[in-house]
Design a protein that fits this description.
It holds the Pfam family DEAD. One of its GO terms (cellular component) is cytosol. It catalyses: ATP + H2O = ADP + phosphate + H(+). Keywords: ATP-binding, Cytoplasm, Helicase, Hydrolase, Nucleotide-binding. With about 425 residues, the protein is of the alpha/beta class. It has 2 domains: about 200 residues, 3-Layer(aba) Sandwich (Rossmann fold); about 160 residues, Rossmann fold, CATH 3.40.50.300. The chain is built from 17 helices and 13 strands. The strands form 2 sheets. Strands 3-4-2-5-6-1-7 form a 7-stranded parallel sheet, sandwiched between helices. The protein has a 6-stranded parallel sheet with strand order 8-13-12-9-11-10, with helices on both faces. The longest helix is centred in the C-terminal third of the chain and has 29 residues. The radius of gyration is 22 Å and the shape is globular. The C terminus is likely disordered. Bound molecules: adenosine monophosphate. Adenosine monophosphate binds next to helix 3. The site of adenosine monophosphate has 15 residues, from helix 3.
């Protein structure tokens, strides 16, 4: 199948060929014709599946078929959970619209609002936004959503995980009731189905589950190792393997910082990326990583969501995620575009239960291995002691924060996009 046979215009085909794509991906083959028919679509697709082009191309075609009005009201709204994803989605819109007359912009929190307000004032056909900043700017009358014809919720499962459901409902209330709705989600939980029922109109379900195929293309290795040996093991693997570009996942922001510092001490260039970092720091870390200046990017799940880093050779789970689906998202970062990738998981005794959940989800047994000098010696009693210690540290951390917060007064109220990352 070709992009031309999907009914896309010459202007879009030109942009697609400039990007170097020859064949539409599974999700593109299924979603593009449905969106062009103006159907509401509920699509299961994860990062790496080509989902962005799956909605961006038909949207551009629809908008371009009806000439844009002189004042360019916002005709398409795309909501994303994170700033990085918003920026990437808008980048793709820009590239695909190069030979059309469509204009897009992106708004997200963590950076000054004025340039965003200015861009909106100039008129845009397509707006990509994170929910918090969008509501802020609506509150400031910087934009109106009364002419939106197409709404996309991208990575809707993440938006729910991050507590955006109320914001989404507020935004839905600002849109015209007659519109086309597209919902993309990596997983279909009960909550997603509920949300879909609330705002999609006779949706067509599209499932292009790349998950199994993705998993099959990836070499998965699990090392059983003690918790306190993980840092040494990761340093050994990266140094001895001479791995040039490694994405490492940790469960917490604090853990990401700590590991990144230890890697730096071991002369392995590294940066941490998570929700407590400023937008500038995150962008810098990501571009350093893409350019090869930063060898190891240490990320939390939510911060890594939607990062577009093609052809990553190695992904390491420093800790297993406690949600099995996140494992599939994480390792889906390797083995893209047909290239083989390697996913390594370091599993301590307390994580064996998570490993079982993952095996059940992917329908595959992941036989753990051990390495000389890294044989696990932890016992259940050690795990219990670690848990007690972790609780103590957490309580201490919270009480320190409370004290700090009392001293600082209530001056640091943040909103929207900063929460829970
Ligand atoms: P996404 O799942 O939308 O994040 O896309 C993942 C990556 O695949 C992006 O880098 C896209 O530029 C790329 N991509 C999208 N569609 C295609 C295609 N049909 N052929 C090759 N690469 C593609």
């Amino acid at each position: 199948m070709s992009f031309k046979s999907l009914g896309l215009s010459d202007a879009l085909l030109k942009a697609i060929s400039k990007k170097g794509y020859d064949t539409p991906s599974a999700i593109q083959q299924k979603a593009i014709p449905l969106i062009l028919e103006r159907k509401d679509v509920l699509a299961s697709a994860q990062t790496g599946s080509g989902k962005t082009a799956g909605f961006a191309l038909p949207i551009l075609q629809i908008l371009n078929n009806e000439p844009s009005l002189r004042k360019r009201p916002i005709r398409t709204l795309i909501l994303t959970p994170t700033r990085e994803l918003a920026a990437q989605v808008e980048d793709e819109f820009r590239e695909y619209s190069e030979f059309t007359d469509m204009r897009s912009t992106v708004i997200f929190g963590g950076v000054g609002a004025n340039p965003q307000i200015k861009a909106l004032r100039n008129g845009v056909d397509i707006l990509v936004a994170t929910p918090g900043r969008l509501l802020d700017l609506v509150g400031q009358n910087a934009l109106t959503l009364s002419k939106v014809e197409i709404l996309v919720l991208d990575e809707a499962d993440r938006m729910l995980d991050m507590g955006f459901v109320r914001d989404i409902k507020k935004i839905l209330a600002l849109l015209p009731s007659k519109r086309q709705n597209l919902l993309f989600s990596a997983t279909f939980s009960k909550e997603i189905k509920k949300l879909a029922n609330e705002f999609l109109h006779n949706p067509v379900l599209v499932e292009a589950t790349p998950e199994n195929t993705t998993v099959e293309k990836i070499d998965q290795t699990v090392y059983r190792v003690d918790k306190n040996q993980k840092t040494d093991l990761i340093i050994k693997l990266i140094s001895e393997g001479n791995w040039p570009q490694v994405l490492v996942f940790t469960r917490t922001k604090h853990g990401a910082n700590r590991l990144s510092e230890k890697l730096e001490k071991a002369k392995i260039t590294s940066a941490a990326i998570h929700g407590n970092k400023s937008q500038g720091a995150r962008t810098k870390a990501l571009s350093g990583f893409k350019e090869g200046k930063v060898r190891v990017l240490v990320a939390t799940d939510i911060a890594a969501r939607g990062l577009d880093i093609p052809l990553l050779p190695h992904v390491i789970n420093f800790e297993l995620p406690n949600i099995a689906e996140d494992y599939v998202h994480r390792i889906g970062r390797t083995g893209r575009a047909g290239a083989a990738g390697e996913a390594i998981s370091l599993v301590s005794l307390d994580e064996v239960g998570y490993l079982k959940d993952i095996e059940k989800l992917i329908g595959e047994r992941l036989q753990p291995r051990t390495l000389p000098n890294f044989q696990p010696t932890e016992t259940i009693a050690d795990v219990k002691a670690q848990e007690v210690e972790a609780k103590k540290q957490k309580a201490l951390h919270h009480s320190r924060r409370r004290e700090g917060g009392n001293r600082a007064g209530a001056s640091s109220k943040g909103r929207g996009d900063n929460r829970r990352r």
